[in-house]
Specification:
single chain; mainly alpha; 5 helices; elongated
């Protein structure tokens, strides 16, 4: 398949496919004219990559597990189970950032309330 067909079937842009290739997440053969040609499992692989990137993993994270993706197999290789640990680490980091942002929000709201009270704002 050519790049446009893979992009259309996978629901991503051709630009995304070129980015995935630059990051080493996918590869393509080249025709004599230089056009990219993808094999049959490229669509499912690209869908999996896009889903993981959208979920918040980095391309470096996905690269570590790209061999686990797009296989269509019900049981991934055993080393793919560590993907759960990577997901959990990213989720933990996100929870920490959310907690920090909530703290900032609470302090800002308290400061607004304090200033409004001292300035006689009836709010």
């Amino acid at each position: 398949m050519r790049i446009g067909e893979v992009a259309r079937r996978a629901g991503v842009s051709t630009r995304a496919l070129r980015y995935y290739e630059e990051q080493g997440l996918i590869s393509a053969e080249r025709d004599h004219n230089g056009y990219r040609r993808y094999d049959g499992h490229a669509v499912s692989l690209v869908r999996d990559i896009a889903r993981l990137l959208h979920a918040g993993l980095s391309s470096e994270d996905v690269l570590r597990f790209v061999h686990c993706l797009g296989t269509g197999e019900p049981d991934p290789p055993k080393d793919c189970l560590s993907l759960i640990r990577t997901y959990s680490e990213r989720l933990g980091a996100l929870d920490e950032r959310i907690a920090a942002m909530n703290g900032v929000r609470e302090r800002l709201a308290a400061e607004i309330d304090r200033l409004a009270e001292t300035m006689g704002d009836p709010r």
